[in-house]
Amino acid sequence: MLAAVLTALTVGQLLLAAAVQHATPGSGPLLWSGVVAAGLGGGAFYPLLASLVREFFGVERAGEIHAVVYSAKALAGVAAVALALVALSSPVTALGVATAIAALPALATPRLRIPGLPATIPL
């Protein structure tokens, strides 16, 4: 499920970059598709990740782990400011970087394993 959410975010960023690059009066559906996909992926990511972390590490340390997970939003905010500065001169480049940032964890997610348990099923 997490891979699907991150993939939706990646596709949304890619569609937004395409909509910005080919900005014409008829590119509205492309823009809206990108907004919806990026919104769904970005909106579902943090709650899904928090519940996944709770499942992986247990409820006894949930407070500490959730603090770490949600503090990642602060780092994402700093990255967003940097991307906004890039977007002032080249919005397509900024959206391309955002696509790459979303694609990396989307590709890595299927390899997640519960800590302490061996990987018995090959990918």
Give the overall shape, derived from the CA principal axes. Answer: elongated
**Major sheet details:** none
- Rg, rounded, reads 17 Å
Strand content: under 5%
- Could you say which structural class the secondary elements and strand pairing correspond to? mainly alpha
Q: State the helical fraction.
A: over 70%
Number of strands: 0
Could you give the order of the helices and strands?
HHHH
Overall pLDDT: 83
Count of alpha/pi helices:
4
End-to-end span in angstroms? 16 Å
Spans of at least 5 consecutive residues whose pLDDT stays below 50 are: none
Structurally, how many domains make up the residues? 1
What does this structure look like?
The chain has 123 residues and is mainly α. The protein has one domain (2-110). The chain is built from four helices and no strands. It has helices at residues 2-21, 28-57, 62-89, 91-108. The mean pLDDT is 83.
Characteristics of this structure?
123 residues; 4 helices; mainly alpha
Can you give me a brief rundown of this structure?
With 123 residues, the protein is mainly α. Helix content is 78%, strand content 0%.
Strand-helix topology:
Layout: H1 2-21, H2 28-57, H3 62-89, H4 91-108
Helix pairs in contact: 1-2, 1-4, 2-3, 3-4
